[in-house]
Amino acid sequence: MPATEQSFGVMLWWSALSAIGVANIVAWLLVARREEADEDPELRRERLYQVVLSGLFTFGCAYRSFLPLAEAQRIVLVDMWFSNAFVSRSIATIAELSIAAQWALFVGQWTKAIGSRVGWVVSRFLVPAIAFAEICSWYTALTTNFAGSVIEESTWAVTSALMTITLISLWWRRREIRRPFIGAAIVLNAFYVMFMATVDVPMYKARVRADTAAHKTYLTVGEGFADSTRRTVVTRRWDDWKDEMPWMTLYFSVGVWISISLIRAPRLKTGIAA
Length: 274
Prior knowledge:
Layout: H1 8-32, H2 41-66, E1 69-70, E2 75-76, H3 85-114, H4 117-143, H5 147-173, H6 179-213, H7 221-230, E3 233-234, H8 238-241, H9 245-263, E4 268-269, E5 272-273
Parallel strand pairs: 2-3
Antiparallel strand pairs: 1-2, 4-5
């Protein structure tokens, strides 16, 4: 690729993203290997689930940090046989269902201990909702129609808003316990909802409008399957990546840190602090 087509900003961003991916793997290994011998067997088992799920999310995000790819546009930084829209979306699906399951476990454990029926229902709603979001994401990845992404990201925003409300309820019902962790979780979830509502969802809506105005012809799901496994467009131009940088950077850094933190998040025994 000619040097004139290679943006220094893109290469710097890619280097930083890759370094974060390596650091995240190291952090996960350090946190995952810690043992708490005196922990309640039930809580110990739940923490093991968190370790496995966080590992799936951490390594999935590391792959996507090392080999950034915008699935619907088919753009990549490196042309490799395992760097295509189909593989990337498959890994992302596993990772995103994993972090949804992490939050479901955490919220479910707390609400069960405190006795919040509404919170328990929310915890059971999270994974099915994100599974629906993944179907919408696959629709966009295969057909290149960003309408699927609008629904996907809106679903993530709604589930996060419900989780924020649930966490606020926990905060007020048991104010004497674990306030810093719950407080941080509330702030981060609220920020995420705001980001989705003001940046991410509007970006995809704008793409839908632009494609509609251009009378773009979308692929069928069958055509998209073949296209997603074969076609990649190698580009390191700033204009091609600038809209992907904000969400990828936050996702592959803060998103992973949250996932790892859930491994060591405070747990509750029924009716009392853990």
